[in-house]
Structures are given as C-alpha cells and as structure tokens.
Amino acid sequence: MKKTNALFLVVLTPLAFGFGFALDWLLVSSGRMAVMVPWTLSICLVLIGIAILALGARVRMAVKPVKGRRIDPIAAVTIVQLAKSSAVGGTVLFGATVGFLAFSTSRPVVVDSVIPPTIGGVVASLVLVVAALVAEWWCVLPPQDPDGEPA
Q: What secondary structure letter does DSSP report for 145?
C-alpha cells in the first residue's frame, strides 16, 4: 500500500476551497443563509484525530520487534485505510471551511458570531489531517535484514 500523496492533498485543497466558496455564494445569492460551521464539528474532528493517533500508536507498538506483541494484519490495514481516508476527508473539510471563511469575511457586513466557529473548523480539520498523516507514518513496517530478522 502506498503512502498518501501529498501532492494530491495539495491539489484537493483549492478544489474544496472553490466548492465551499461557491456553495456559500449560491446560497446567499438565492436568498438563503450561508453555511454556519458549528462548534461540534471542530470538537468531533479533534476527537477523531485523537482516536486515529491512538490506533496508529497501537500498530506502531505492534511493529516493534518485541516477542508476544502482535496485531491482526487486517486490523492494521484497516487502521491505515482509516488514516488515509481521514487525511483526504480532513483536506476537503479544510478547503471548504477556508472557503466559507473567505466568503464570510468578504461580505460588506460580517456577522461576528460566524467567524470563530469557522476558524475553529479550519484549525480542527488541519489537526485531523496532521494526525492522520502521522498515524499513517506510524504504520510503516521497519526494513528487514537479509537474515529475516526485524531491523
């Protein structure tokens, strides 16, 4: 399994930014309210990041060459897939919330109650991306010696 491509995440961010900005623009231009990012989103994203780090640490400890310490390979692959998908999802949420923030601050009248939760969403989604990439990095097997013994 390949690591998450950083270039893919970098390319995905402006696309998500454009989607978030355009969504807010379409909603406001049709007479509806703009998207309000709730504080619960920020809390949930940080909790998901912590859970992914805990699962990644579990795999990291199992990879160390200590007798008796094992992990199911299917569980390890599932944790890596969760970390990869969280990195992509966090990137999309990061770009979209930055788009929401850019649209909200570019309006002639800025509602003060919208800005702090949106900034919280931006920070929390960035925390999720970093946590997911760290957990994915922790799930890499160490190089093997030619004798077959772990390095």
A: P
Can you tell me which residue has the tokens 């010696």?
A: 145
CA atoms within 13 A on the CB side of 1: 18
- Give the separation between CA 128 and CA 96, rounded to whole angstroms: 14
Q: What is the DSSP letter of 144?
A: B
Could you report how far apart the first and last alpha carbons of the chain are, in Å? 20
Task: In whole angstroms, give the CA distance from residue 68 to residue 74.
Answer: 18
Instruction: Check: pTM over 0.90? Answer yes or no.
Output: no
The answer to the question of residue 66 being in a domain is: yes
- Would you say residue 113 lies in a domain? yes
**pLDDT value at position 112?**
83
How confident is the model over 140-149, as pLDDT tens digits? 766 655 555 5
Cα gap 21→18, rounded to integer Å: 5
Residue 144 in domain: no
Q: How far apart are CA 64 and CA 132, in angstroms?
A: 20
**How many folded domains does the chain comprise?**
1
- In total, the chain counts a number of residues equal to 151
pLDDT for 151 equals: 47
